[in-house]
Model the fold of this input.
Amino acid sequence: MTLEIVELGRAIRARDPARPSWPEVIFSYPGLHAVLWHRLAHRLWRWGFRGLARFVSHLGRMLTGIEIHPGARIGRRLFIDHGMGVVIGETAMIGDDVTIYHGVTLGGLSLKPGKRHPDVLDGAVIGAGAQVLGPITVGRGARVGANAVVVNDVAPGTTVVGIPARCVGEGCPETVTVGYGLPSGEADPVGERLARLEAELRALRAELARRPVA
Ligand SMILES: CC(C)(COP(=O)(O)OP(=O)(O)OC[C@H]1O[C@@H](n2cnc3c(N)ncnc32)[C@H](O)[C@@H]1OP(=O)(O)O)[C@@H](O)C(=O)NCCC(=O)NCCS
Done:
């Protein structure tokens, strides 16, 4: 617990341009409190105390304005900035070092039980008010613009904006690579895979560049 507070606090101080002091981070950052409430709720959920888990998550929501379903799986150093109005669904998965701003939904589109919420991979940033819907993947280091509505996978290291979200800037994968020698209009699976690998490589390089030199 203490280790997690220190780790989260460091992440918040590094990623918030307001550069808060340690007391500010510990006492006045709802994003930090929400993650700690969620750790307790998630543990109870996994132990089978589902009603109690929901109650703990409800208390966390009352105190922070951030609603995280106790079933959601959340990695290390999640920074939820401002927080109010964030909703994270039951089958959502969040990797390490993700940043989420206020008003974001990681929600479902289907009423059927089972996997129905997004996976947000390491280092992704989800802008204020963005709605990320369905069992899609936001790739490593990807950025989702404020108020975007995302219903398709986001390639690693790319930026998407708008409604419905579209890729802008560098690294956008070609929508369909037509394969040489394939019947006209047919996609080239190898080319598509290469484009995805290139985008992933760019995201990894960007991540390495962000890390401080030891
Ligand atoms: C999406 C985002 C990450 C893009 O940053 P960037 O890579 O520097 O991209 P640019 O600002 O160069 O914009 C690229 C294009 O997308 C457009 N764009 C940028 N953000 C947009 C948004 N949220 N919605 C719609 N279009 C957007 C720009 O107008 C530009 O369009 P153009 O090429 O036609 O001129 C950033 O604009 C954003 O929305 N960040 C979220 C920040 C946030 O939520 N802050 C809350 C703090 S409290």
About this structure: Residues 2-210 form a domain with the UDP N-Acetylglucosamine Acyltransferase; domain 1 fold (CATH 2.160.10.10). The CA atoms of residues 109 and 134 lie 5 Å apart. The mean pLDDT is 91.
